[in-house]
Amino acid sequence: MKPFSKSKFSIIVCCCLFFAIACDQQKQNISTTSNTSSEISGSTTTLVRAGNFAQPILDPHQVSDIQNTALLYDLYEGLVSYDIHGNITPAVAQSWESKDQKSWLFHLRQDAKWSDGSEVTAEDFVHSWQNLLTNKTALAPYLGFIAVQNAREILQNKLPATALGIKAIDPHTLAIQLDKANAYLPMMLAHIALVPNKSGLYNGAYSLTNIDDKKISLTANPYYWNKVHVSFQQVEYWRTNLSSTKIDWQFLPPKTTTEVQQVPKLCSYYYELNPHHPTLQNTAIRQALISLISSQSAIANVALNGKATVNLLPQSMLFSSYLNLPPAEQLLMQANVTNQHPLHITLTYDDSAVNQQIAQNLSRQFSQSDLIHVSLQGKTTQEWATQHIQQQFQLIRSGWCADYNDPSAFLNNFHSKNPDNLIHYYNPQVDQWLEQAMTELNPEARQQLYQQVVDAIAQDAIILPLFQYYLPVSIAPNLAGYDLNNPTQIFYSKDLYRLVK
Fold first, then answer.
1. Tens-digit pLDDT profile for residues 364-374
2. pTM for this structure?
3. What DSSP string describes 290-348?
4. Contact 324/355 with Cβ under 8 angstroms?
C-alpha cells in the first residue's frame, strides 16, 4: 500500500475468489455504456489501446504507471489473476491451500506455457521473486509487505536472496512461507511485480511482436492455457495519434475526447485529526469538527477526478459507518469550548491548487461555527511530509492508495504497530480485531471484524473522509467484456471483445 504522497509500490491488486471464464458469463455480468448503436465498426480481431508509451517499460520489476502496467498484464500472468469485476481468480496456480495461513502450497496448472511452448514451472517463480529482491527495484519491498519470509532481511543485505521463503517442491508445486499468518495472501499475489519473468518469453495471453515509433504490437500467444476465451488476436498500443476515433480503449484520454467514463480507484483522500495534539485530545472536539463538514461541499468547484464520500473505504468495499452525534456546538461546549475560549485549529496541506482549494472550502465550513477559528498552512511536499511523520499538526491532508482490493489494505494502517500509522493511533480493541482478521477464513466473520474496526475509527474521529479518486477512460461503444465498477484499474485485453450486428 502507499500514501499518494509517496511511492512505495505502484500497482493496485485485488481480492475475493471468483472464477469467471466464459464469454457468455461476461456478457451477462458486465457494466458498459449503451452498445446498441447501428454504427458498429472496428475490427473483431484487432484491439486498439493507446496511452503514454514514450518510454515503454517491458520489465515487470520496473514498471511504475498504470498504462505500462496494462501492457505487461497482457504479456505476463502470475499465480492468480483478476476477473472482469476485479476479483481474484486462479491463473498459473489452479488451486492453493494452507493449514495455518503461514505455510502455503500453490498447485500450478500443467498446461501453463511460455510463448516458446515450454512449461511455466515453480522454479520460474522462485527465480523471478529472488531477482526482484536482488535488483532492489522500487517494487522489491512488496515482498516484505506481504510478509514473505526473510524478504525484509534480504532487502537490508542481512541475508542472500536464496533465503527468501519460496521453494519449488516440484515443477508444479510452489511453497510460500510467511513471517506471520496472512489469510488473504492469495488476494495480494496478482501484483505485477510477482509474475514470472523470462527474458524474451511471455506466459500471458499475448506475446510482443514489434515496437516502432507509432505503436507496440502484440499477438495472441498460441500456447496460452486459456486461449479459447481470447477474442482479439492482435492488440496494438498506439504511441501517437492519441485523438483518433479508431482507439478502442484509453486511460487519461485527451481533453478533446467527448465520451469519457470514470472507473474507481482504490484511493481515498482524507484529513487526519491528530489525537495526541493538546487541542484535539478530547474525542468530542474531533467528533464536532467532523460533523461540521460536508464532503460534497469540500470538493465543490474543485477540478479533480473523484467523487465525494463520507467513508474511509472505497465504495466497492461496501462498508459505511453512522454516528448519531449531538450538534457540533453542543459537543464543543461539553469540551469547554466557548466564545471566550474558542477552538483554534490549523489545516496543514501540501501546497497544490487542488489541496489549497479543498482546504479553503473546509475552512469556510468550520468557520460557520463562532466557536472555531481556522488558519491554513500550505507547505512544500517535503515540509508537509516531515510534519506528518513528526506529528507536528492538528489536521493534515492525507490519503491512501491500496495495492489490493481488500479492507485490510486500508485498515491495517490503523494497527498501533504499523509503520504507516503516522498519527500513532492506538485502540487496543482495533488491534485485536485486525489481528483476528489476519487469520479468519470465514468471509462473513472477517467482514464483521472489519465493520467493527470501521465503526471504532469513526467513533474515535481521527479521519475526515472527503473523496475517492476515479480514473477517466475512453471506451469504444461497441466494446464489451469489462465492468466499469472494477476498482483495480486492470482491464485485460483477453477479456475484451467486439459486439457485432
1. 999 999 999 99
2. 0.86
3. HHT--HHHHTTT---SEEE-S-SS-GGG-------PPPHHHHHHHTT--SSSPEEEEEE
4. no
